[in-house]
Design goal:
mainly alpha; 5 helices
């Protein structure tokens, strides 16, 4: 194992524990172009939304308890909601389609029965 491989070993844990990345001397504001590149890479689009102050404070409290910022928390919550709603919509559409197919089969069967009678 090379020296560089040894240095990289355990890096994820070091970031998670705060050994790496928490020294203020290395903190800097990112350039606007960096933000744009990150947003583009992650397919993020900035939006503007008005929320009640109390809701934002509650989101910030919840986010802090989860160890994340409130905006990523809102993204997660919206993603979960949209995923759940899309599944519900698909399930309902499938149920409607199946009901229509059953009804069509029943109509065919009754028409066939009437022709034989």
């Amino acid at each position: 194992m090379s020296t560089q491989e040894k240095a990289i070993l355990g890096t994820e844990e070091a970031w998670d524990s705060g050994v790496l990345g928490s020294d203020e001397q290395y903190v800097a504001v990112s350039h606007h172009s960096t933000d744009d590149l990150i947003s583009e890479a992650l397919s993020l689009q900035p939006i503007s939304i008005r929320l009640q102050k109390g809701l934002i404070e509650n989101l910030k409290t919840i986010a802090e308890l989860h160890g994340i910022g409130y905006q990523p928390l809102v993204r997660q919550a919206l993603t979960r909601f949209v995923d759940c709603e899309m599944k519900r919509i698909a399930t309902e559409a499938l149920a409607v389609k199946r009901k229509e197919e059953r009804l069509a089969m029943e109509i065919e069967a009754s028409e066939g029965h009437l022709k034989r009678a």
